[in-house]
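Hi V.,

Quick status before I head out on leave. The structure for the redesign project is tokenized and pasted below; the design run finished overnight.
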């Protein structure tokens, strides 16, 4: 079976968020199952620089404002990449979506229409010898692939579309319809029209054969008016074609037994060694060296979505319990400032590093006792999965993928020996405070805390199970379309 991924980012070539991790990890995880997945992505400068063994496979003479070409290559780890070279669109360093002024590139509609158009050409067999049995498009940047295939008037492989974050929808003025090579009949209520604009996300939801998102709870939430970001009705209309599959994590990169970023290595049977990582983290954040108080951490974008304003409100609870807090993040200036002030006002107990620091994020997962994730919505979330793997119990809002991956330490779950963290609902500062209080209480019971850590670390958070779920879905879609590749 051959599957074409279409995505605007892919780890380790270019990454701004979870989408890159999924594309870069799911594609190779499908290989042992008998599915060869190749990733089509724009040849940004960073991609060109890192791609190995490159070879032109097709010319695309008419690609939105100039010529383009398709280049085949491999990542360091051997993942097959199809890079779309179109200098007029992609020869821009830095963030793939934003210019130096921090604003979206004004021609993003053309840039990602070109990506989707290249996906169409490969799927139809117009670009090189490699032809996929099915197409897996990711997020709005690849949202026009299913539309282009639908309106090609040609037989084409089935298309599956994954929503990584419904908050980003790719909305553009309707006057661009023709420039985007979309037929007038696509612009309607049953098509890609959204409040009189073109919606790349809606195009994908309407024209794909199947829709997935990154957790079962998020799959449910986005079909409601509250969580549907304006597309709840559209998604409800496709309820039979929506599936939630929780992401995995790279267990080689996130392994407390071998992580090169951390001071002391440990495992389920050597958890006492985690104390050395806690000490190192306390030193890094100028916190008092205390073993017997819980050290909470945060590793996050500091935005409205992540709910960290609620943590600021709940801070008195942490302070009154003599617990500690270490925060690593960047984003919203007001939230950054408030955390910096909280650290200044509570030296030795609260520490903050503003910025993006991958090695430090590993040291935080290793050194903290618990990680706080109070998101207002969270399609899947990765940091709670890292927390589980590092025996750093997650304290999470009961939303999206957080609800699906952490088992709350309520009395029944403790008695049944299944608890792996703490959940709270509704997503308010009060409820967060309640969960933090429960975490502080449990921390004082060393035996129960250790048992929860061991269970957390034993939880399967790798890619094998999610890859198998995607593979089953691919086969079902191929069988439905009568493809021989389903066999
Ligand atoms: P989202 O993609 O919405 O930001 P996820 O939890 O899915 O949230 O993924 C966030 C990823 O970014 C995780 O790998 C997390 O460790 C990382 N991350 C977030 N903020 C920082 C930071 N300031 N420094 C280092 N890594 C960070």
């Amino acid at each position: 079976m051959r599957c074409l991924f279409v995505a605007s980012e892919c780890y380790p070539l270019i990454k701004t968020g979870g989408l890159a991790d999924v594309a870069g990890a799911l594609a190779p995880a499908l290989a042992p199952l008998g599915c060869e997945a190749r990733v089509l992505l724009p040849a940004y400068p960073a991609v060109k620089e890192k791609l190995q063994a490159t070879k032109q496979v097709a010319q695309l003479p008419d690609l939105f404002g100039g010529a383009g070409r398709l280049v085949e290559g491999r990542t360091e780890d051997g993942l097959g990449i199809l890079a779309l070279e179109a200098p007029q669109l992609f020869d821009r360093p830095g963030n793939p979506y934003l210019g130096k002024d921090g604003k979206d590139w004004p021609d993003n509609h053309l840039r990602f229409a070109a990506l989707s158009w290249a996906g169409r050409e490969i799927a139809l067999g117009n670009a090189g010898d490699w032809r996929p049995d099915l197409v897996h498009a990711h997020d709005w940047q690849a949202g026009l692939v299913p539309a282009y295939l639908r309106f090609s008037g040609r037989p084409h492989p089935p298309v599956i579309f994954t929503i990584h974050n419904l908050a980003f929808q790719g909305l553009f003025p309707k006057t661009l319809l023709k420039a985007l090579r979309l037929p007038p009949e696509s612009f309607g209520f049953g098509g890609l029209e959204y409040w009189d604009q073109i919606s790349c996300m809606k195009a994908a939801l309407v024209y794909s054969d199947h829709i997935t998102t990154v957790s079962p709870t998020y799959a449910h939430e986005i079909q409601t008016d509250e969580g549907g970001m304006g597309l709840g009705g559209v998604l409800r209309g496709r309820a039979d074609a929506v599936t939630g599959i929780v992401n995995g994590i790279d267990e080689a990169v996130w392994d407390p037994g071998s992580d090169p970023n951390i001071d002391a290595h440990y495992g389920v049977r050597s958890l006492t060694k985690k104390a050395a990582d806690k000490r190192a983290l306390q030193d890094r954040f100028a916190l008092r060296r205390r073993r017997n108080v819980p050290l909470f951490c945060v590793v996050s974008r500091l935005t409205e979505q992540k709910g960290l304003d609620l943590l600021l409100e709940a801070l008195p609870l942490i302070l009154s319990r003599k617990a500690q807090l270490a925060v690593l993040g960047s984003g919203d200036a007001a939230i950054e400032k408030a955390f910096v002030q909280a650290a200044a006002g509570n030296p030795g107990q609260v520490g903050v590093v503003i910025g993006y620091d991958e090695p430090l994020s590993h040291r935080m997962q290793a050194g903290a006792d618990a990680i706080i994730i109070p998101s207002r919505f969270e399609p899947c979330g990765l940091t709670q999965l890292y927390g589980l793997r590092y025996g750093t119990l997650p304290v999470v809002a009961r939303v999206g993928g957080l609800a699906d991956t952490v088992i709350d330490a309520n009395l029944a779950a403790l008695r049944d020996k299944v608890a792996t963290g703490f959940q709270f609902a509704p997503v308010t500062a009060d409820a967060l405070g309640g969960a933090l209080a429960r975490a502080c209480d449990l921390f004082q019971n060393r035996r129960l805390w250790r048992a929860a850590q061991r269970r957390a670390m034993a939880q399967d958070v790798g890619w094998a199970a999610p890859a198998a779920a995607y593979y089953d879905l691919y086969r079902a879609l191929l069988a439905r379309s009568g493809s021989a590749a389903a066999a």
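Above is the designed sequence. The chain has two domains: 2-248+464-486, 268-457.

G. will cover questions while I'm gone.

Best,
W.
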